[in-house]
């Protein structure tokens, strides 16, 4: 069932920025099979995005079936773009299985998503594919690749995760991504989509504000962090980091997440969400697989940037050009 999320900061923002127009509708929440609910006519002109939350397993075809069901539901509800989380293709039990299940971008799995995008007529953010690179035979390592498809099923951008998660948190399954993953060589310039200009990132990247600042400086209006956050770091850091990235860049932040138990060795925190440039969570998923919906109001974003012109106030003479694009 769909539900509306209101902005608790209406009064504060009106006092801070007199004359700033704040949209009445910011987001919607949904379970896996939501029922339609009337949306105020004033919101129809705002693009609608869908954020999908799943529990990937080593079963690639079952994962595709689950993701495809959510994408078709997003299209039925009128979304122009659907976001899938990191490792939407699979989450394996060990490194050997990860490498065995990986595919090149020209593989069968991406072909299925290409067809799905065309069938549904919407853009897809495929948040983290286990990609065999052209030098697979020599390296026997893969990329963690974020693929953006347009509504015709064409690849319009690929971003390979630059910050690899090599951490050992007490109480959480150790992660040593560099054992089997090659770090990406560069950032990707923001891509124009029906929802706005999107800056691509993946999960652990959110801990490095320089990356988000670089994307915002290059023109991003939406930052996306498809993720598979752990059960210990999730409650402590997930929402805090996402809201911080939104506030400091004055961008929308879209974070599709893995949730639940993938197999006997691993589980994820979930709590997929959309955060607006003011730092308010305007849509979020519940505990299990499902989707949430949010409308992207770029006029609100531009007015906020006008009233709080933080990028004009930066002092590179003191701390250098942090966040200046390097791509």
Automatic annotation (TrEMBL):
Enzyme Commission designation: 3.5.1.128
Record-linked InterPro entries: C-N_Hydrolase, C-N_Hydrolase_sf, Nit1/2_C-N_Hydrolase, UPF0012_CS
Keyword Hydrolase: yes
Single Gene Ontology BP annotation: amide catabolic process
Keywords: Hydrolase
Any one Gene Ontology molecular-function term assigned to this protein's record: deaminated glutathione amidase activity
Domain (CN hydrolase) ranges: 46-298
SUPFAM superfamilies registered for this protein in UniProt: Carbon-nitrogen hydrolase
One GO location term (cellular component): mitochondrion
Classification via Pfam families: CN_hydrolase
Family stated for the protein in its record: Belongs to the carbon-nitrogen hydrolase superfamily. NIT1/NIT2 family.
Protein name: Deaminated glutathione amidase
Organism the protein comes from: Sciurus vulgaris
């Amino acid at each position: 069932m769909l539900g509306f999320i209101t902005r608790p900061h209406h009064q504060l923002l009106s006092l801070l920025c007199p004359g700033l127009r704040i949209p009445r509708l910011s987001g919607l929440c949904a379970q896996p099979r939501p029922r339609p609910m009337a949306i105020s006519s004033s919101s129809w002109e705002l693009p609608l995005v869908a954020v999908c939350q799943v529990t990937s397993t080593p079963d690639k075809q079952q994962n595709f079936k689950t993701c495809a069901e959510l994408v078709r539901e997003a299209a039925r509800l009128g979304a122009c773009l659907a976001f899938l989380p990191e490792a939407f293709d699979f989450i394996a039990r060990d490194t050997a299985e990860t490498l065995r299940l990986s595919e090149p971008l020209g593989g069968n799995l991406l072909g299925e998503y290409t067809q799905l995008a065309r069938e549904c007529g919407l853009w897809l953010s495929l948040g983290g594919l286990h990609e065999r690179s052209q030098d697979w035979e020599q390296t026997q390592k893969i990329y963690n690749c974020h693929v953006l498809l347009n509504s015709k099923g064409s690849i319009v951008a690929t971003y390979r995760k630059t910050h690899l998660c090599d951490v050992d948190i007490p109480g959480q399954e150790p992660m040593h991504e560099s054992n089997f993953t090659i770090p990406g060589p560069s950032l990707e310039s923001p891509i124009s989509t029906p929802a706005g200009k999107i800056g691509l990132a993946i999960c652990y990247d959110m801990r490095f504000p320089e990356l988000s600042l670089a994307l915002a400086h290059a023109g991003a209006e939406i930052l996306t962090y498809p993720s598979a956050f752990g059960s210990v770091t999730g409650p402590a850091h997930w929402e805090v980091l996402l809201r911080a990235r939104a506030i400091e860049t004055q961008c929308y932040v879209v974070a599709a997440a893995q949730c639940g138990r993938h197999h006997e060795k691993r589980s994820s925190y979930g709590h997929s969400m959309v955060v607006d440039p003011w730092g308010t969570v305007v849509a979020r998923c519940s505990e299990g697989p499902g989707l949430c919906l949010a409308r992207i109001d770029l006029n609100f974003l531009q007015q906020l940037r006008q009233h709080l012109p933080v990028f004009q106030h930066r002092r590179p003479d003191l701390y250098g050009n942090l966040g200046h694009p390097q791509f």
